[in-house]
Every structure is written in structure tokens, then in C-alpha cells.
């Protein structure tokens, strides 16, 4: 199996742009996915296939991929975006892995 | 609307087994998979595995191989996750989630159950 590495925490002021990175050796060949989890709630998918946004997810959420890193970008961060964010990917056999999670703090 | 409703909290002794259920509604059960993800208190998400409801194919996390079994009952649109030989570090909230499949492999989770707390304690 392989690992996905995320920074433990990111802090940003309201209205600014937050970027959360996720690194892994398999990412050049496999898609990255992002889940948002607020305290006491189940995770919510916010980005799939590196940069696709599910219906109902605000446009301020976007994703990108470059080499071994995928990035979740939240433009114009709002207080309600404060949450834990997890990246996820899989190998070619469908074995999944989650990153360790990043706590986004809105100052 | 799509809903996944899980069974209630469980308290188990070390060495015992637990079986958590996940009843799906609002979509064609056999067109998707079900994945199980757990989260220990204060920790991150841990993928446990997934099952294709259509053909029963499974893919389990290596660290749980031999202790976990995922099954489905298409007559009741219910998925099950059984974990055996429980240890204290299996204490966690266990989530089921609907898995979209691509070429028979689970690729994303778009609807989640409410979670089931399993506590392992002597």
C-alpha cells in the first residue's frame, strides 16, 4: 500500500484563499478525491477526479493536480468552511487510502 | 432521496465480534457498491474496504484481512460489515457509504450513513 501526506493544519482569514495539498507517489496515475468533515458529522465529497465538483458544492471549492501532488483550493473562505479535509486515492486494483487529514481554521 | 441508515451503537468485549448493518433506500441498490470507513476517537478516516453489490466482489484493507467480512442482502437493500477478534484499538465510529463503481472498482463515496459507534472494552 502507499501513503498520502497532508499538512496537519492550515489557517486562513475569512475571504482569503486556502490551499490544502496532498502528496503521494501514485497520484500521477490515479485520481485524487477530497472530503470535508465537520465535527460530529459524516464526511462530504467536495472534489472528485482531481478537479470535478459534485452538484451542490459551492464554486469556491476547486481542485488541481500536478505530478505527485493534488491540491484543494477554497477561494473566498467562509467561516462555515472550517472543517477537517481528507484527500483520498486508490491504486489500480481499487485499494484505497486516505490522507491523514488537514484541519482548516478560519481565523 | 438517497439514505443510508446504520444500526445502533455497540459495546463489545475484546475478542468478540460485531456486525454493523447499513440499510439503503432511494436508489437502485445493485447499481452501486458499499464502502466502510472507520474513525477512531480524535483520529482521521481509515478505509476498511468495499463491496460491489452487483457481483459481491470485495476489496479489504490489508491490515484488516482475515478479520473483516462485508456482505450485502439485495432482498432488503442492506449491507453488513462484520469485524472479528475485536481489540481496544477497534473502538471507532464506523461509517458505510455508497460507492460509485467504475469498471467494477469503487471510485468515490457520495452518500454516507450516520455512523455507528463501536466500543471495545473489558
Description:
The complex is a heterodimer of chains A (107) and B (122). Chain A is mainly beta. Chain A is 0% helix and 44% strand. Chain A has strands at residues 9-12, 18-23, 33-37, 44-47, 61-66, 69-74, 83-90, 96-98, 102-106. In chain A, strand 5 and strand 6 (69-74) form a beta hairpin. The mean pLDDT of chain A is 95. In chain B, the strands form 2 sheets. In chain B, strands 2, 4, 5, 6, 9, 10 and 11 form a 7-stranded mixed β-sheet that branches. A 4-stranded antiparallel β-sheet of chain B has the order 1-3-8-7, with no helix packed on it. In chain B, a hairpin with a 5-residue loop joins strand 5 and strand 6. The radius of gyration of chain B is 14 Å and the shape is globular. The N and C termini of chain B lie far apart (40 Å). The A-B interface holds A 1, 31, 33, 35, 37, 42-45, 48, 54, 84, 86, 88, 90, 93-101 and B 35, 37, 44-47, 50, 59, 61-62, 95, 97, 105-110, 112-115.
Overall, the morphology of chain B is: globular
Terminal residue distance of chain B: 40 Å
Q: In percent, how helical is the residue content of chain A?
A: under 10%
Mean pLDDT of chain B: 96
Shape of chain A: globular
Radius of gyration of chain B (CA) equals 14 Å
Output the structural class of chain A.
mainly beta
Strand tally of chain B = 11
Regions with little confidence, pLDDT below 50 for 5+ residues of chain A: none
Query: Taking Cα atoms only, what radius of gyration of chain A do you get, to the nearest Å?
Result: 13 Å
For the biggest sheet of chain B, the summary is: 7 strands, mixed
Tell how many strands the DSSP assignment of chain A holds: 9
Helical proportion of chain B, percent range: under 10%
Largest binding interface between chains: A-B, 24 and 22 residues
Share of β-strand residues of chain B: over 45%
Summarize the helix and strand pattern of chain A as letters: EEEEEEEEE
Beta-strand portion of chain A reads 35-45%
Order of helices and strands of chain B: EEEEEEEEEEE
